[in-house]
Request: fold
Amino acid sequence: MAQLWGGRFTKETDQAVFAFNASIGFDKRLFWQDVEGSMAHVRMLAKQGILSQEERDQILEGLKGIARDVESGALEVDETQEDIHSFVEAQLTERIGQAGKKLHTGRSRNDQVALDMRLYVRGRVEETARLLEELLEVILHTMEENLYTYMPGFTHLQKAQPTTLAHHYGAYFEMFERDRQRMGDIYRRMNYCPLGAGALAGTTYPLDRDYVAELLGFAGPTLNSMDSVSDRDYLIEFLAALATVMMHLSRFSEEIILWNSNEYQFVELDDAYSTGSSIMPQKKNPDIAELVRGKTGRVYGALMGLLTTMKGLPLAYNKDMQEDKEMAFDAMDTAADCLRLFTGMIGTMRFRTDRMEKSAMKGFTNATDAADYLVGKGVPFRDAHSIIGRLVLYCMEKEISIEQLSLEELQRISDRFEEDIFEAVSLKACVERRLTVGAPGPEAMEKVLESCRKRLEENRGETFHWTGLLQAAEWREK
Reply:
């Protein structure tokens, strides 16, 4: 198989070396980005007079033909080629002859692959933002429907204070909203075009890098040719953001696994998002949540793998950087699959609100409110804290809750208790009196819901607006 760099060599590459060096097995997914970048490059070459208009038209038609054939399935990527760039150029030359050999004028595979990867990652960043928006919409809908659904809040996996399902879900809304914002940050920071950097020092051809950047929807060209071909910060940032997304999904999954257990019975998973046991007929397992939790490690691994690959590389390009793709592609695919399935799972999940409320009434979740009650009666908080601690111990010994005590029993522990204590420690009062910003009280939550709706709507797809050359209808025309 002819290679793009064979002229200086006097003997064939060992086949084991060729196979070890080749990347087409995984970089073939960059086909569309490679054709996209080549179309922009050849238009610029013609604009600058480096290619004739006739050569430009020949090359463009050849590239469009290759794209049409790959899309239709008439042409398969030839994996005996070294990489996707070699495949496209070989196909082009075979179809249009000598003009095809001029496509590579003024560029190196270094800036070519840097462009391809940046275009690909940019698309995956946009995809992730859309998937996060879909998840946020499901979370927000659940919040709106459960403003008065009481449940226990936990610290250390022990019941702490009562809250609502809307408030609990609101915590995850904030997490995934930050994740969505990170996608916009990454997009804006990475959206600069490396094509024209050459191998590392630019080129003597009078390229118009601003024009290529404009054609490809970038904010402008990158400003240092060495950094252009050796930069993988944008990919590290994206993998770090995906790792954070997966961490949030994993935390949420852990809670759903607990809520789905026989001990909690807070939720019932839809049959479409559950599996059974091969031996125990009664089982209905939360496999999707467990797999999301498990697959988080794969995404973490991709991030650590790339950081380790990059940590000792001198400028500029090194072949080590070919290792930026396989694990990164897997991480992107894994995160996207997890987001889609998780959104479907929680969107079809049924809540056992009766079980949640009963659980919230146990475990002394109103103990803090009882202490606050005493503070309202003039008891210093530290003393109130101690009194309620003794009260909880007394209740534990009798195996009853605070509200089940008689007023006489309460007053034996503190004479500050009056008849209104029972209303003060009711589940409804414990939740609805919490009105500070970010608290679960309905008045506070209504303001938060308004903010959530506004943020989701205002930022919907705002950052991502580019339609590429291959997405336009013209390339499909015969």
